[in-house]
Amino acid sequence: MRQSSLVVVANRLPLDDSAAPDGACEWRRSPGGLAGALHAILQQTPATWVGWDGTVGEARTLPDVGTLRLRPVALDEDETRGYYEGFANSTLWPLYHDAVEPPVFDRGWWETYRAVNRRFAEAAAEVAEPGATVWVQDYHLQLVPQLLRKLRPDLLIGFFLHVPFPPPELFMQLPRRVELLRGMLGADLVGFQRPQAAHNVAQLASKLLGAEGADDAIALEDRVVRTGAFPVSIDVAEMRSLSARPYVINQAKKLRHDLGSPKKVLLSVDRLDYTKGIEHRLTAYSELLRDGRVKVRDTVMVQVAVPSRERVETYRGLRDRIEREVGRINGEYGRVGEPAIHYLNQPFDRADLAALYQTADVMVVTPLRDGMNLVAKEFVAARRDDSGALVLSEFAGAAAELEDAFQVNPHDVDGLKETLLHAMSAAPADLARRMAAMRHYLTVHDIHAWAQDYLTTLSFSSQSRTASIGS
Ligand code: ADP
Ligand code: F6P
To answer: 20 to 30 A from 182, CA-CA: which of 130, 226, 281, 380?
Structure first.
């Protein structure tokens, strides 16, 4: 087995297979923020990515992607249910997102979660060269840092959580809270999207482990774990160059024409997930139509909702409810050839997404809770001029950075309606000022800056393995 000096460990590999038109297997980038973000920085870096290819059964041999080697981890049917759909996505995911859906505590899932985390740790230990840096990603693999440290004490281990870390009173609900906290703190550096998360972990470390905790470091019995906020970003240059392609520019014009050349196009692009606030958004839009404050002839809403975690009951239920509601709204307010909402439940390639972003007048990103939300950043990067408004939930990590968006509390449906109308009628000069400020921010804070900041801090963290807090 060839070894690497940099190993990324994430639940999912950056590629999904899909059937090509001729029935052959075709690889494409998997949807979701994590895969996109890391894929962007690893394309030209010699590294190995340890992850699952999204299928059930034997691991397949996968081709290298440029300089990136892929080391698949296989999951069988029981593991997919207990680890991925169960503990990761029915316990941790809802709990970490403010319990907007009730988390499920199923005692059978824990052992599977631990066993699969061990398999990922063993795979990482196998492909990491002596003294290598191993960067573990997200809530699926929260036990890996500690397991890996036991297997390979020579490694420099980073952990980054892409989703929010909950307030202590929510985390305390977890039956295996001590193991989960210890698992994550097996890393040399634990990174989060927001400083509040590091604060929450420090409080929990003191309460549950008796550790001395500050917002940037936690002293365990034998070592110091550094913590901090590193807001993830996007490949701004890639999105800009994509957006300048003639295909994308023409496609954006064509889309607008196909939508009936309305005065305003509202766009939302989400994984079909209950954290994304799609139902609240539909309620707000439907009430604006009902009250005659928005007219179908003038305004069109496009909702892209890519299917996600479809074997999990809450996701199936959500999809049914959304499809019923879109049908109701179109039935009630649409006209022949003029639906009120264009609902697209399908994946798009990057160029077509860029064209959609260019077509929109108002991008509506209103999650109830989101670690970051890269769609909001992609929209800003895809704009070729200073037009376009971003309506952004206060509960997305991105809100702390994109301060010039039209910020909104998505739980407040009346407030959401007013903010949509405000964004739709904003003066061009106001839009231009906001867009220029957001674009400037993203130019500096792109995905490369994120990776460099994290990995540099991680390399310094190794010196603190035996040091004390504050040194
Ligand atoms: P999450 O990580 O929760 O899915 P983000 O907004 O951070 O949310 O990231 C979503 C990523 O998935 C973005 O990079 C976006 O471009 C991509 N994406 C969303 N919808 C689609 C779609 N229909 N087709 C392809 N990619 C999509
Ligand atoms: O960013 C949150 C996240 O869970 C990522 O870890 C993941 O890549 C993405 O959402 C998509 O989810 P899934 O891998 O379950 O399809």
So the answer is: 130
The CA-based angle 7-13-15, given to 5 degrees, is 130
Torsion sign, CA atoms 425, 426, 428, 432: negative
247 shares a domain with 222: no
What pLDDT is attached to residue 463?
A: 57
For residues 315 and 417, state if they share a domain: yes
Largest Cα separation within the chain, whole Å, is 70
Residues 32, 34, 35, 40, CA torsion sign: positive
Single-letter amino acid, residue 199: H
Give the binding-site residues of ligand 2, using a 6 Å CB cut-off.
Answer: 12, 32-35, 138, 162-163, 308-309
Q: How many CA atoms lie within 13 A of 168 on its CB side?
A: 12
Distances (CA, A) of 203 to 105, 213, 214, 415: 23, 7, 8, 34
The answer to whether residues 222 and 346 belong to one domain is: no
My answer on whether 298 and 152 are in the same domain is no
Task: Give pLDDT, residue 471.
Answer: 32
How far from 247 is each of 85, 241, 243, 287, 379, CA to CA, in Å?
38, 12, 9, 36, 17
CA atoms of 427 and 80, how far apart (whole Å): 50
Residue 434's domain is classified under what CATH number? 3.40.50.2000
Cα–Cα distance measured from residue 469 to residue 459, given in angstroms and rounded to the nearest whole number: 17
DSSP code string of 365-380: E--SSBS--HHHHHHH
pLDDT tens column, 374-415: 999 999 999 999 999 999 999 999 999 999 999 999 999 999
Which of 238, 375, 402, 450 to probe ligand 1 with, by most ligand atoms within 8 A of CB? 375
Residues with CB under 6 A from ligand 1: 31-33, 36, 269, 271, 304, 306, 347-348, 353, 372-375, 378
In a domain, 464, yes or no: no
Please tell me the predicted confidence (pLDDT) of residue 468. 38
Active site residues: 162, 370
Q: Helices 313-333 and 278-290, interaxial angle, to 10°?
A: 10
Residue 225 sits in which domain range?
Answer: 6-229
Could you tell me if the ipTM is greater than 0.90?
A: yes
Where is the domain boundary, 171, 200, 229?
A: 229
Global confidence as pTM: 0.95
Task: Please state, in angstroms and rounded to a whole number, the distance separating the CA atoms of residues 187 and 393.
Answer: 31
CA contacts within 13 A on the Cβ side of 341: 28
Give CA–CA dist 150/181, Å, rounded: 16
Distance CA 241, CA 237 (A): 6
